[in-house]
Amino acid sequence: MNPYYIYALKDPRTTPAVPFYVGKGTGVRAWEHTLKVDSTRKGKRIAEIHAAGHSGMAQLERSMKTFQASMMALGRKQ
Asked: Which domain of life is it from (predicted)?
């Protein structure tokens, strides 16, 4: 099985939350963006989200759990 996954960072200030970054990663890569905010356009958006009182972590965790469940279901069907 491929160790990579695709993830989306979503802006929780909008309803529904709108993706502003899509990436490919392994391990905890998806969470690193919110823990190590840089000066890129993506990083500035994350800083704005944090300043508005949102962490984004819960949304990302829910998305990852949904993705993992979908992948497991696909694996069982093969």
From this structure: Bacteria
Question: What whole-number distance in Å separates Cα of residue 26 and Cα of residue 21?
Answer: 16
Backbone angles phi, psi at 53, to 5 degrees: 95, 15
- Percent with pLDDT over 70 in the chain: 67
DSSP symbols for 3-50: --EEEEEEETTSSSPEEEEEEEESTTHHHHHHHS--SSHHHHHHHHHH
Q: How many CA atoms lie within 13 A of 17 on its CB side?
A: 17
